[in-house]
Amino acid sequence: MTQNIYDDDAFFAGYAQLPRSQRGLAGAPEWPALQALLPPLAGARIADLGCGYGWFCRWAAEQGAARVLGFDVSQKMLERAEAPPRDNPPYDRVFYQRADLETLRLPSLSFELVYSSLTLHYLDDLAGLVRNVRAALVPGGRFVFSIEHPLFTAPSAPQWARGLDGRRCWPLNDYQREGERITDWLAPGVRKRHRTLATVLNLLIDAELAIARAVEWAPTPQQLAQQPELDEELDRPMLLLVSAQR
Amino acid sequence: MTQNIYDDDAFFAGYAQLPRSQRGLAGAPEWPALQALLPPLAGARIADLGCGYGWFCRWAAEQGAARVLGFDVSQKMLERAEAPPRDNPPYDRVFYQRADLETLRLPSLSFELVYSSLTLHYLDDLAGLVRNVRAALVPGGRFVFSIEHPLFTAPSAPQWARGLDGRRCWPLNDYQREGERITDWLAPGVRKRHRTLATVLNLLIDAELAIARAVEWAPTPQQLAQQPELDEELDRPMLLLVSAQR
Known about the structure:
- 2 copies of one chain form a homodimer.
- Chain A has helices at residues 9-16, 19-22, 31-35, 55-62, 75-82, 126-136, 150-153, 197-206, 221-226, 232-235, and strands at 45-49, 67-72, 94-98, 111-117, 137-148, 161-162, 168-172, 179-185, 187-194, 210-216, 239-245.
- By secondary structure, chain A is an alpha/beta fold.
- Chain A has a single domain, classed as Rossmann fold (3-Layer(aba) Sandwich).
- In chain A, the strands form 3 sheets. In chain A, strands 3-2-1-4-5-11-10 form a 7-stranded mixed β-sheet, sandwiched between helices. Chain A has a two-stranded antiparallel sheet with strand order 6-7.
- The A-B interface holds A 151, 155-157, 159, 161, 163-165, 167-177, 196-198, 201-202, 205, 210-216, 218, 233-237 and B 151, 155-157, 159, 161-165, 167-177, 196-198, 201-202, 205, 210-216, 218, 233-237.
- Strand 7 (168-172) of chain A pairs antiparallel with strand 7 (168-172) of chain B.
């Protein structure tokens, strides 16, 4: 089973302080780029894998989605998601369910969109999930997700260093050594899974999903002006966004 | 126009000493992985963009290709390619032509395979070439190429360094800063073009070619046993191989 670090008290407390927790989608700098990959949501049936606080689920309902199912392994996350606004339109079209994404079975041919934000790098069996997603999509349906970029997850010492020219650099190694990575982020011992970019793409292709777009996220000039610290992302992308089509 | 470094005397002399120049396809460790991406060649019409010494063209003729057109910007390369074996079957089905790939216009709907080995990172207008390739392929035809991996072309100081844990690392930076890179490889001032991996894939998608496979090349255990120095490739891939389908 996937590690459920989000129910760790220290991790959850730290996570609650992140801009993306406090401000929702507007607090996630990659959101405009991820949003640009989405199909029309009006009338769409949507599954959100790793829905967290439910920010995306609620937003999708506001866009006119017919039905939004949010899944998360974390009880604490779902308690936040279930908090008001809840029972009034459009939020009455949102349903949350606790689920381990490695064992979840989605109904077949039931979604125009399967969405996942920053969750898939925790999964041991990504291939199984992707096959499941493919079966759950209607023909023409989209799987749109963000995942930690393989360049971010790969290194043995994932901290900025200096190159021989004195410039900041990301000390890339172990890129081809796929598997477990243990990091200390908000809490010690967070377990993630490193896969190469090619592996992620080929898993989709093998499941007969067509790659419609790949985005190695970088801040816009406007975002850089407002948040200069995002210039790190010009040296080494931290996030990979993908749109794939059944 | 693309830099024609291959007609530089010093560069050409150095290039002639490389295993892949002296031993051909067998001297290129990525060749088995690239070969695995190829469609059946018997009866196929093939264009090779950046054919160099013509190793691939001759091999494709030996596999029963109907016709193989090899293009290269370098006069010196083509002189080597034109050397015997030449006029006897199957090599009489191979034709070489000097061409700048940025201005070359391939005939429409004329090839089952367009192939290119380690050439595309020299081109300024890759998008134009990709559109050209797409138009030249028959429906179902393949564009199979290798290119220097964006991780290899990106850094401001592309030499192995040490990370904070003392391990060898590739000092990645400037990944999102696409454009010219000048390196000293065999000769000073070799001009290449850095593009992100997403850019390369999206150029194909925008030209209505479907990504069929992406390979970030790594040596096999057998290759590592024979050439231990290839273990660098486990830390940072140098080569990207792609198969795309019209």
